[in-house]
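Predict the 3D structure for this chain.
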Amino acid sequence: MHLLLDVEREEWGEQYGKIRLASPLKKKGSADKQISVFDLKGLRVLIANHIGEVPKDIRFAAQRIVDVETPQARHINAARRVAGRSPISDEHAAALAGRPQNVIVAAIFKKTISGKELAELNDLDRPDAAGPCLFELPGYHDVKPWVHGLRRDVEQWRLGNLAWEDLSRGALLSGPPGTGKTLFAGAFATSLGFRLIATTVGAWQSAGHLDDTLNAMRKSFDDANDRRGAVLFIDEFDSVGTRPARPSGHRNDQYWQIVINEFLSLLNNLGEGVIVVGATNNPEWIDPAIMRAGRIENHFTLTLPDASTRAEILRYHTDRKFSLEDLAEIAGALDGKSAASLEKLVRYARKDARGENRELEVRDLRARLPEKRSYTLEQQFRLGVHEAGHALVSLALGYASSATIEIKGSFDPTATSFPGGQTSYELIDDYLPTEATLLNRIAIALAGMAAEAVVFQYRSIGSGGVVGSDVERATAIARRLVGSYGLGKTPVFLGTVEEVVGKPMPESLENEVVETLRVQYERAFNMLVDDRDRVVELAADVVAHGQVKIERDRQADAA
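Done. Predicted structure below.
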C-alpha cells in the first residue's frame, strides 16, 4: 500500500498517516496504542491481522472491508511489477507462495532469483545455531520423542503443508534445580531452527507496578510474535500466580486475577510460529487454566540423572574423549548430582589438566570426586531398620506387592541432603483411593521413624527436615484429606490439594491434622512392636547384602 499510494516517508503505525495498523508495532518513537474512531484523520487504509482487531465503530465507518488472501504465484509477480522488478518463473513464484511474509518481501525486492537462491530461502528464517541441538545432548529421554515429532511438524508447516493450529505449541518443564531446564530451552530452539526468547516472571514483575508488569509481559510475547519462528522460554513459571478458588476481595487476589487473565489472553492469541515453554520447580503452584489443552498442554518432569545418564553427561562434556566404560565408576560415585554439577566437575578437571600443561585424563575427573564419608556399621543398621519399617508396613497394609530395601555405605558431606537408604515398591493398583487407603499411606510414610523408635527408642532426623521427606509427605496427605477431599470429621472444602498444603486452615482442622498424624504414627509403631524381630532381621540382611527384596507372604530375597 505504501508503494501504491506513494507514501514512502510514512512509518508503519504513524498516528495520523494514510496507512496504519490496527495494532501498531511497538517501535520507539511510533504510536503504541490501538486505533480508535477518534483517530481517523487522514486515514485511507487500515491493516489488521484479523477483523477482531478492528473496533466495531471503525468497521461501521469503513467504506469497504477487504479480506486479503494468502499470496499466490500471480500475486507475487504482481507485487514484483509494482516494486519495479521483472517477473520470475511461475515455478519459482509458486514455491514462494505460503512462505512467511518477510521471506516473500525479500524475494519481491531481489532483482533476479535463481533456483539455487530460492533453495537458500529455506534457511532464511532460521537463526544461526548458537548452541547444541537437543538430540546431541545426553538425557531428556522423556521429552525427546515430543520434540522429534514437533520438529517434523514444523518442517511441514514451513512448507505450507500443515496448519499451525495442528501443532502442539506449549510445554512445561518441572524438576529440581540443576536438571537442565534452561539448557533444554536453547537446545530445543536450535533443534527447530527457531529463535530463543528467554525471560522470567521475575523480570516482568521487577518492571514496576501492575501496568508495568503487564507491559513487560506483553513485550515478551510481542518479541516472539513475528511469524518467523520463536521459542518463548519463561522461567519461574509458577510465579505467574494462581487465581483464588473463590472471590475474597483481597487486593492481592485482584492483582493476580488481572495478571493471569492477561497471561491467558496472550496465550490464546499467539501468532503462528511461537512455542511457549515454561520452567518451574513447583508445578503444583500453577493455575490449572494455564495448563489446559490448547495452552501449555504438555508437562515433562526432569529428574536428577541416573548412573548411566551421568556417564553420558560426563562423556558429552569431555568431548566424547573417554568411553562410557571409562566413566562408569566415576558416574557411580556421583549419585544425586545434577547435570550442572557434572559440567562443573569436568570444567574444574580441565583446569587441573591445563595447570600441568597437558590434555584432560580420566584421573583428573577422579581427583575431582567429592570426598565421601562412610557410614559406621551402627549407622547402616539404623538405616536398614528405618527402611525395613516402611517395607513391612507397606506390605501388611496392602499398599504394595513387594518392596526393595537399599542402603548406602557412604555419603557426600557437601550435599544439601544425603539420604542413606530408600525403599521402592511394586504398587497394588489403587485407582480410587478411599479414606482408609489414604490413612494407610500416612502410616507407611511414618513407619520408618516408628521402626527406629521400636528398635532404638530414640529416632534420627532422617524422616524430616526437607520437602519430600517422610514427615512432609504424611503431613501433606493429612492436610489434603481434611481440607480438600472432605474426608475429615466434617466434610469441608477449603481449596485444591495444592492450596491446602501450603496455607493455614481453621484451628479445628489443624488440630484434626495433628491428631490424624498421631494416630497413624501410633498405628505403625504398634504394628512394628509386634514384628520387631522381623525388622531387626531385615535390617541385618540389608547391611550384609546392600539390597533386599521382600514380597507379601514370602521370604526375603537378598541381592
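Residues 507-530 form the longest helix (24 residues).
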